[in-house]
TrEMBL record:
Transmembrane segments: none annotated. Residues 7-243 form the ABC transporter domain. It comes from the Bacteria. Its main location: membrane. This is ATP-binding cassette domain-containing protein. Gene3D superfamilies: P-loop containing nucleotide triphosphate hydrolases. It is found in: Cell membrane. Belongs to the ABC transporter superfamily. One of its GO terms (molecular function) is ATP binding.
């Protein structure tokens, strides 16, 4: 493990044993990655890609099946309690006690770490301010909105002042406003020096939060790098999205055309995608072919386009 790496994996593998006559399942298949102090690092991919299994191994709650893994220069298999004491974990499900108040949830979690009562009370005050829940401190969790519960879960994970915060699908199920509030809280944490590791299948979330990321599919890493670098490496500057009443006929004409400004055609179940350096020029070429799309959108390329290019399917399949 290098001096700057907080987490380092080599050939990391997770295999679930066969059950009920089914074959064993290789959820994580020999991946390598290294996480540096002070960065936000993401695991991007569709459901079942191996993201959550990787997070459970990092958090020392699921043993590795093969390869090596070091977290904070510790072995999660033999030194699990020491690893967990220095981590904060935000699971997909909030797991809050809804019959207790916001303050009580924070207090009880602090006691799990054996923190003195005075220290817990001081940290609760700061965490309530961080999560913007001061006016809800003595309300039962049951009455909180989904966004408030998610902020409380993150605040609770910080009670032990962790060196690394692991977030598994942190904004799933939240409305756009709540998602942006949560992004702001996470950005503040990063500014304060907390190292973030997150899984997500939201491409805009990965672009907003991650310094670097890996794209996973079928338990393997299919691409890695900074979001902008991945977009520049794997896709064109712009994408033209088209929808037609008769998509099959339109796709056939576009495949045989040379009027798409050098673009590459991708056929999806609900739309056609033209990857090109000049979306407006490609759209003009579509009209020159006598095709009239129901809708046409020119936009910049995103990480979703990277994934479509690499795997041929959507991140949320």
């Amino acid at each position: 493990m290098t001096e700057t790496s907080l987490v380092e994996a080599r050939g990391l593998t997770k295999v679930y044993p066969a059950r009920g006559g089914s074959a064993e399942f290789r959820a994580v298949d020999g991946i390598d990655f290294a996480l540096r102090r002070g960065e936000a690092f993401g695991f991007l991919g569709p459901n079942g890609a191996g993201k959550s299994s990787t997070m459970r191994m990092i958090s020392a709650t699921s043993p590795i099946s093969g390869g090596t893994l070091r977290v904070l220069d510790l072995d999660p298999v033999t030194q699990g309690p020491q690893v967990r004491a220095r981590l904060g974990v935000v699971p997909q499900d909030d797991c809050l006690d809804r019959e207790l108040t916001v303050r009580e949830n924070l207090y009880i979690y602090g006691r799990y770490f054996g923190l003195p009562r005075k220290v817990i009370r001081e940290r609760i005050a700061a965490l309530l301010d961080f999560a913007q829940l001061q006016d809800k401190a003595d309300e039962q969790v049951e009455v909180l909105s989904g966004g408030m519960r998610r902020r409380l879960t993150i605040a609770r994970s910080l009670i032990n002042e962790p060196e690394i915060l692991l977030l598994d699908e942190p904004t799933t199920g939240l409305d756009p406003q709540a998602r942006h509030v949560l992004w702001d809280r996470l950005f503040r944490l990063k500014q304060d020096g907390v190292t973030l590791i997150l899984t997500t299948h939201y491409m805009d979330e990965a672009e907003q939060l991650c310094d670097r990321l890996v794209v996973m599919d079928g338990g393997r890493i299919v691409a890695r790098g900074a979001p902008r670098d991945l977009i520049a490496e794997h896709v064109t500057r712009e994408v033209l999205e088209l929808r037609f009443a008769d998509q099959d006929t339109a796709a056939e004409k576009l495949r045989s055309s040379s009027r798409l400004a050098g673009g590459r055609l991708e056929v999806l179940p609900d739309r056609l995608m033209v990857y090109t350096a000049d979306g407006e020029a490609a759209l003009a070429g579509v009209h020159e072919l006598g095709l009239t799309p129901l809708t046409a959108l020119v936009r910049r390329s995103t990480l979703e386009d990277v994934f479509l290019t690499l795997t041929g399917r959507s991140l949320i399949d």
